[in-house]
Amino acid sequence: MAEGVINPWPYSVTLGRMGRSGLDLRFEPNAAERADIAKTLNLVSLESLDAEVFLRPWLDGAEISGLIRARVVQLCGVSAEEFEEPIESRFSVRVLPADSENSSPDENGDLALDPEGDDPPDVLEGETIDVSGYVIEHLALELDPFPRKPGAVFQPPVEPVDLSPFAALKKLKSDPDTGGEGG
User: Which of 78, 66, 59 is nearest to 25 (CA)?
Assistant: First the structure.
């Protein structure tokens, strides 16, 4: 597929369709699709999303790499105000079909994982790669789980508020104007 072609959203491709030279894809979801993505990611809105994704053969699976550019509107966890944040991120992930000999565990039944090495490849349920799913997943990984508008500062309440059912009685008891003990 020619570079620069915008594909429909959501988009998936089978390993067989990728071919030897791979695929270069570009996505720009429309406003309705961005609204669905924003709802999925608990965003106020997704003002823009552009993703370039490159699929290349790797072993009997594929390597998926890409660049995501987005403008997200989030709700500040401190001030509850909306704010816009630009995101630009690169990602890379490898996938293997479920029946791949390269995804099978070793003789002990364990996957050989190197904590300092690359992430293990994702194992596909079939032969289909959910390309748009990887874009959304990696966009989600870039979002701050506790968004804070630049410059927002937490201001604790001026005086502690006692919300217990006995707070009013306590105030009456200590108020000298109501005949309380004052203390």
Answer: 66
Residue 152 is encoded by which pair of tokens?
A: 């927002």
CB of 34 within 8 A of CB of 10? no
Q: Could you check whether the bond before residue 156 is cis, i.e. omega within 30 degrees of 0?
A: no
Structure tokens at 76: 């500040």
| Side-chain half-sphere CA neighbours of 141 within 13 A | 12
Tokens of 148: 């804070």
Q: Average pLDDT for consecutive 10-residue bins of the chain (183 residues)? A: 59 88 93 95 96 94 96 91 95 91 60 67 90 96 91 72 71 64 50
Residues in the chain: 183
Q: Which two tokens stand for residue 156?
A: 């604790």
Task: With both helix axes pointing from N to C terminus, report the angle between 31-40 and 131-142 in degrees, rounded to the nearest 10.
Answer: 60
- Name the strand (E) or helix (H) holding 135: helix 131-142
